[in-house]
Automatic annotation (TrEMBL):
<keyword id="KW-0663">Pyridoxal phosphate</keyword>
<dbReference type="InterPro" id="IPR036052">
    <property type="entry name" value="TrpB-like_PALP_sf"/>
</dbReference>
<dbReference type="Pfam" id="PF00291">
    <property type="entry name" value="PALP"/>
</dbReference>
<feature type="domain" description="Tryptophan synthase beta chain-like PALP">
    <location>
        <begin position="25"/>
        <end position="336"/>
    </location>
</feature>
<dbReference type="InterPro" id="IPR001926">
    <property type="entry name" value="TrpB-like_PALP"/>
</dbReference>
<dbReference type="GO" id="GO:0004795">
    <property type="term" value="F:threonine synthase activity"/>
</dbReference>
<dbReference type="InterPro" id="IPR050147">
    <property type="entry name" value="Ser/Thr_Dehydratase"/>
</dbReference>
<protein>
    <submittedName>
        <fullName>Threonine synthase</fullName>
        <ecNumber>4.2.3.1</ecNumber>
    </submittedName>
</protein>
<keyword id="KW-0456">Lyase</keyword>
């Protein structure tokens, strides 16, 4: 794919929104490692299993690609601040890029936000408010969006919410994942890319990226894109199984932070890709996701969030069902770092033997 000599995502500026070099904010996002599995692939009988380590981004998730483009775009348009809402990772990411660009960031969060995720927003000095009842009451939710709308128009603020439905310009940053994958495989597409799906923005961005790849590169193939959801919040996968164009309605009972999104904002776009035959859906129980989180760490040295480990639960399921086979080139998008959800890290640690305290003399012979 076309590359300039800039670093990170700006290497692909020709395929991103037009932003002057002065306003292209970067903290070193993108250009993330593509790592081949040394153990788990062999254990499953997969010869070509790869991890795309989005956890290596500056704030620990792929949301940095969106924040980099979104905050730069806000600067380019002369906006005075950014405003939005988040369940966690997007907030940390936008807070970091807003800090770097000197723009204030006004953030409204759920009353029940994970304390660890809130801390990451606060250290970057965002102006955060928890909203009473936000996350439980639909009425409060719609008032939050009314407030965001009002403030953004009145004060010339950029609305930065990480879904195509709200900010398609910022979401263009996600496409760079696909360009990097194509280049990492030496100018080829992999066979299947397993993508965690909450609102569907990550999936949709990767699909748009591979559309660009197919358009710009002679003979390039569009890979199968696999939409992976928690069985407790699988409104898109259920709709795909029924052959429908819109996500089915229904609440979330999933415990996977980042994937508890019952009103999938970009669900329609995901279903367009799947219904066109360019991929399929997998839904997996949370217990399977948790055991894969542990196995990824202990067998392949990859500590990620449950929202990323879910892709391996889906790989195992797809292999058993014959949707992928031993020679398929398979990529799991490891969307976020393990430290994002320390409660889950603690849960894994609790299953291991306690760390012993010993006298060094007792170890010497
Ligand atoms: C945001 C997020 C997702 C889900 O992305 P959507 O665009 O909402 O589908 C998955 N994993 C991590 C780590 C995230 O931060």
């Amino acid at each position: 794919m076309i590359r300039s000599n800039k670093s990170g995502i700006w290497k692909y500026e020709a395929l991103l929104p037009n932003i002057s070099t002065d306003n292209q904010v970067t903290l070193g996002e993108g250009n993330t490692p593509l790592v081949k599995s040394r153990n788990i692939g062999r254990e499953l009988g997969l010869n070509h299993l790869y991890y795309k380590l989005e956890s290596a981004n500056p704030t620990g998730s792929y949301k940095d690609r969106i924040a980099a483009v979104g905050v730069s775009w806000a600067l380019e348009q002369g906006k005075e601040a950014c405003i939005g809402t988040t369940s966690g990772n997007a907030g940390a990411s936008i807070a970091a890029y807003a800090a770097s660009s000197g723009l204030p960031y006004h953030l409204l969060v759920l009353e029940s936000i994970l304390e660890a995720k809130l801390m990451q927003v606060v250290v970057y000095d965002a102006q955060v408010k928890k909203i009473k009842g936000f996350g439980e009451s639909a009425a409060v939710g719609s008032k939050v969006f009314t407030y965001i709308d009002e403030q953004s128009v009145k004060n010339n603020w950029e609305v930065l919410i990480t879904a195509f439905k709200f900010n398609p310009t910022a979401m263009m940053g996600v496409k760079t994942i696909s360009y990097e994958l194509f280049n990492d495989f030496g100018g080829q597409s992999p066979d299947a890319v397993f993508i965690p799906v909450g609102g569907g923005g990550l999936f949709t961005g990767i699909a748009k990226g591979f559309e660009d790849v197919v358009q710009h590169e002679k003979d390039a193939r569009f890979p199968s894109l696999v939409a992976v959801q928690s069985a407790g919040c699988s409104n898109i996968v259920q709709a795909w199984k029924l052959g429908e164009a819109e996500p089915v309605p229904g609440d979330s009972t999933s415990q996977i932070s980042g994937l508890q999104v019952p009103n999938s904002l970009d669900g329609k776009e995901v279903l367009e890709v799947l219904n066109a035959g360019n991929g399929w859906g997998e839904s997996v129980p949370d217990t399977s996701t948790w055991s894969w989180q542990e196995r990824l760490a202990s067998r392949d040295g990859i500590l990620c969030e449950p929202a990323s480990a879910i892709t391996m639960a889906a790989v195992e399921q797809a292999l058993q069902a014959g949707r992928i086979h031993k020679d398929s080139v398979v990529v799991c998008v490891i969307s976020g770092a393990g430290y994002k959800d320390m409660g889950r890290v603690q849960a894994i640690v609790n299953t291991k033997n306690e760390v012993p305290l010993v006298e060094i003399d007792s170890l010497l012979s």
